[in-house]
């Protein structure tokens, strides 16, 4: 990835969420089209897939602030993006899929979008474990940290 990466905005989930991805990334086809997520990667990528899902909660018995508090309860490193008002929590974990070791970077991004509605986007970026500490991966993760925290909920 170059020092100055051109970004394109994508809008998903019927216009409920928009965010930026690198210009050369494409939406990738998934085996199960019934899943409620979108994924993006460089064409032909062997490692490095961004995936996003969206949850919407209508406040009935609790306020949007209480819902946000519950979403992030017990989590570390929760911050608020001052520009967007989004609440963000980032974390990582190792896993295995089909016998292949992978490393996942997660960002939970949530915001009260109406007086009684909260949206929560869960972004994950998956790389092969042996590439997790590579320069290219660190650059991409740094970029994704910036763009997902600025996701736009409507």
Summarize the structure.
The protein is of the alpha+beta class. It is built from two helices and ten strands, in the order βββββαββββαβ.
Distance between the termini: 30 Å
* Architecture per CATH nomenclature, i.e. the level-2 architecture: 3-Layer(aba) Sandwich
Unreliable spans:
none
Rg value:
16 Å
Binned strand content: over 45%
The count of helical stretches stands at 2
Mean pLDDT: 92
Q: How many discrete domains?
A: 1
Say how many strands there are: 10
Backbone structural class: alpha+beta
Instruction: Trace the largest sheet across and list its strands.
Output: 3-4-5-9-8-7-6
Main CATH class: Alpha Beta
In one word, what is the shape?
globular
Order of helices and strands: EEEEEHEEEEHE
Fill in the CATH topology. Answer: Protein Transport Mog1p, Chain A
Largest sheet report: 7 strands, antiparallel
Structure report:
The chain is an alpha+beta fold and 154 residues long. The two termini are 30 Å apart. It has helices at 64-72, 135-149; strands spanning 7-12, 17-22, 26-27, 37-41, 49-58, 78-80, 87-97, 100-114, 117-128, 152-153. The chain is globular, with a radius of gyration of 16 Å. The protein has one domain: Mog1/PsbP, alpha/beta/alpha sandwich (Protein Transport Mog1p, Chain A). The chain is built from two helices and ten strands. It has a seven-stranded antiparallel sheet with strand order 3-4-5-9-8-7-6. A three-stranded antiparallel sheet has the order 1-2-10. Helices cover 16% and strands 47% of the residues.
